[in-house]
Design goal:
Blueprint lengths: L1 E4 L2 E5 L2 E4 L3 E6 L8 E12 L2 E18 L10 E10 L1 H14 L3
Antiparallel strand pairs: 1-2, 1-5, 3-4, 4-7, 5-6, 6-7
């Protein structure tokens, strides 16, 4: 996923967990709670059971939790929980479909 802060590219990050309401990811830099982010998730575009192409899902979110809670010299990474505050209906539907395809019962 790609993250932007105030329109500036903050880098590409790997998600730990994603839902239709938010994303949990690891960052090498501390991001304070209540920080607003622009997020682009790159998800497979499934066509006929195959996922040869990718689709961008764009959304806005706010950081609701950062672990460890404080920035420090002994921390090389931070786990960030972000709640989506804005996502188009089409992008939410694609995200939900992707999540459902990942579930195994």
């Amino acid at each position: 996923m790609e993250v932007k802060l105030s329109g500036r590219d903050c880098g590409h990050f790997e998600t730990i967990n994603v839902s239709a309401n938010g994303v949990y990811f690891t960052s090498p830099a501390y991001i304070a709670p209540l920080t607003r982010l622009e997020i682009i998730l790159l998800l497979p575009e499934t066509v006929g059971g195959r996922s040869d192409s990718k689709r961008e899902v764009s959304c806005e979110g706010v950081v609701v939790r950062t672990e460890p809670e404080a920035q420090g010299p002994n921390h090389s990474s931070y786990d960030i929980a972000c709640f989506f505050t804005a996502i188009s209906e089409a992008d939410r539907e694609h995200l939900e479909l992707y999540i459902l395809q990942q579930l195994t019962f």
